[in-house]
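New to this. Explain these C-alpha cells.
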Amino acid sequence: MKPFLLLASRAEDVAAEDEYEAYLRFGGLEPDQLKRIRMERAPLPELDLDDYSGIIVGGSPFTSSDPPEKKSEAQHRVERELAGLLDRIVDEDFPFLGACYGVGTLGLHQGAVIDRTYGEQLGGVTISLSPAGLQDPLLAGLPGQFTAFTGHKEGCTVLPPHAVLLASSAACPVHMFRIKQNLYATQFHPELDAEGLVTRIDIYRHAGYFPPESAEELMEAARTYSATEPMKILRNFVKIYGR
C-alpha cells in the first residue's frame, strides 16, 4: 500500500507527536504507512500525488478567518501552500480528509463562508448525520448520532452550493461536508479520544480557546465523555483509499 500523508502544523512537539500517534492508532497504520510533514517548520516540498494513497490535514492553531494583519508569516505561507496543493487535489478529486482545519482550508478554497459565528468550546458534542451522511461510504458503520470532541474558534457559516452536507451539531450547522466524491472535511476531530483532548487542553490553555483558569475543569469534563465512533472515519478512509 502506498503511504498516506499527514500535513501537520502544530508547533508544540508534544501536541504534534500526540496527533501523529492518534492517526496511526485509530487509522490502523504503521509508521511507514503514514508519512508526516510539519508545515509550520519549513516550506512544503514538491509533492507527487501518485506517491500517496491520500492526504490528511490535521488540526491547527491557525485560524483561517483571522484578519491578514494578525496572521504570522508561517500561517500566511502555510495557507498559500495548502491553497496551491488543493488546486491539484480538487482538480484530480484526490482522496483528502481535513480534520478541523480542513473546514477552513478546503471550505475557503471552494468558496464557503468561514467566520466565528459557530465556534464551539473544547469538549464533547453530539454530532448528527444528514440523510446524505447516512449514505456516505466514509461514514459507514457510524450511527445517526454520536459523540465527538471539538474545539474551534471558527466554522462554516455558508457552504458552497456544490458541497454535500454530511453532519451537524446543535451549535454548529456544518460539522462535515464532501466536495466531489473523495474530498472530505470535518469540524470535529476524528482522531481524538478523551485523553488526547486532555493533552490538548493542557497544551493550549493560553491559546484563546477558553479561559486559562478553566483548564482543569475542562479536563475533568473531557474524561466524562466516551468518543469512540468518530475513529471509524479514519479506518474507513484507510480502507477505501489505501492502494
